[in-house]
Amino acid sequence: MSQILIVEDEGIIRSALRRLLERNGFSVTEASTVPEARDAQQKTQFDLIISDLRLPGAPGTELIQDQTPVLIMTSYASLRSAIDTMKQGAVEYIAKPFDHDEMLAAVNHTLSQYSPKTVTNEPSAAAETAPSPPEPHNGILGESPPMQRVFKQIRKVAAVDTRVLILGESGTGKELVARALHDQSPRHKAPMISVNCAAIPETLIESELFGHEKGAFTGANASRNGLIEAADGGTLFLDEIGELPIEAQARLLRVLQEKEIRRLGSVESRQVDVRIIAATHRDLERQVDEGRFRLDLYYRLNVVALEIPPLRERGDDVILLAEYLLDQISQRLNVPAPKLGRSAREALLQYTWPGNVRELENIIERAIILSEDKRLQAEDLHLPGQTPQPQYESRRPFTPEKRTSTEHTTHSAPPSRANRNDPAHLPPNDLSLEDYFVRFVQDNQEEMSETELARKLGISRKCLWERRQRLGIPRRKTATGR
Ligand SMILES: Nc1ncnc2c1ncn2[C@@H]1O[C@H](COP(=O)(O)OP(=O)(O)OP(=O)(O)O)[C@@H](O)[C@H]1O
């Protein structure tokens, strides 16, 4: 049963709230000031604190700490006080007088978001012997101090309707963070639409984002909503915003300034209410200096910047994530989950993870498929630069890639045990897989479009683009933007 601490100096409100919560199966403790609340916290570990903002003496925001989520009640409901409260780390605020359904929804939502800890008053025997597996925070796993800081920032900015720019290397979890921001925002019932600006061909990006009228360009046979309109009322996540072509940047700026969009080929504007969250692995300030990104758009997007640390700076989180992924992926593949041996742990901690968590996912999946042991050792991981490449590697490169549901393991997983010795799966002329990738792209990029190249390599356009960046073979701009 979840333990809730109510901190409220008005007795009538306190007991009404207590009755409401007890009727709904919560265990409740009351306090009327911050010091009383602190005393209660010495005795019980609460799953949630609901506190009035204004209390005699110290305000309720004093109770905001990293551990227990705090829901602040205030009769001074204004955007300003909500923003201030959230900035101090409250997970939710609610205006008084509250209605019962609203309060219960806020309580349930907060408890489900902040994985309730096992109540520690009387730990069960099972809880003592078997440590519970780590719980992801909104699907994001991490116990290291840098990740705790990220979680705290997410809590602060999610509920405030502000634009957020998420910065971090490829595969660090920027999209997961955007999802967490949306899910914890008042917009969570409306859609979050994700657009990868690097994955849509330049010629299509404006019509994808803004929509078009029939006849706006060759091939526009019917009018179509853009993705910004589709996100109306919700959140638009613009991933790899640094790749947005300059013309589309001007149009996007208009959306941010005027809160309206104009479809291609239309003279009419439509009002839209969209929260924009953008992400990039690029140094946008440098892009601005180089004239590739509009300064005015940069300022509009960069209201709050959230930096996601690379995996190599998260200490033991790599082990936590690896164990979590071993369980998750084994379940999906319907095979028993292997454990991590000591040498595997050491190798995971030493490796530098250029592809971050996405790379770890791929490495773990490959190890599960290929290893026959119940305990994985360093050599089972085939980490680049640490162990020889497996002889049976597919012709298709196996480097970090973001999967879509359709391309899942089909393209990225190495061949099954059955076809290890099939010559079709041996790498040509002993080339490393990355050499093979570089050579293939260099030899074919003049004749093939990006879509064709990606198809031949068995990867997505986005993955092709990511590898081009990583391996230093950036795509040359063409007149058609193919
Ligand atoms: N802390 C984490 N806990 C659990 N899974 C994670 C974590 N971080 C990332 N992942 C997983 O790693 C993969 C990559 O994450 P995501 O797509 O959010 O990264 P990204 O930074 O947006 O990458 P890109 O810049 O290439 O778009 C996803 O499958 C995601 O679920």
Automatic annotation (TrEMBL):
Gene Ontology biological process:
phosphorelay signal transduction system; regulation of DNA-templated transcription
Basic and acidic residues bias (residue ranges)? 393-410
Keyword check for Nucleotide-binding = yes
Q: Which residues carry this modification: 4-aspartylphosphate?
A: 52
Q: Which SMART domains match?
A: AAA (SM00382), REC (SM00448)
The record's annotation in InterPro entries points to:
AAA+_ATPase (IPR003593), AAA_lid_NorR (IPR058031), CheY-like_superfamily (IPR011006), P-loop_NTPase (IPR027417), Sig_transdc_resp-reg_receiver (IPR001789), Sigma_54_int (IPR002078), Sigma_54_int_dom_ATP-bd_1 (IPR025662), Sigma_54_int_dom_ATP-bd_2 (IPR025943)
Does the keyword field hold Iron? Answer: no
The Response regulatory domain covers 3-111
Query: MF terms per GO, please?
Result: ATP binding; DNA binding
Region annotation (Disordered) maps to: 117-137, 382-430
Q: Which residues form the Sigma-54 factor interaction domain?
A: 140-369
Q: Which UniProt keywords apply?
A: ATP-binding, DNA-binding, Nucleotide-binding, Phosphoprotein, Transcription, Transcription regulation
Which PANTHER family does the entry link to? PTS-DEPENDENT DIHYDROXYACETONE KINASE OPERON REGULATORY PROTEIN-RELATED (PTHR32071:SF117), TRANSCRIPTIONAL REGULATORY PROTEIN (PTHR32071)
User: What is the designated name of this protein?
Assistant: Fis family transcriptional regulator
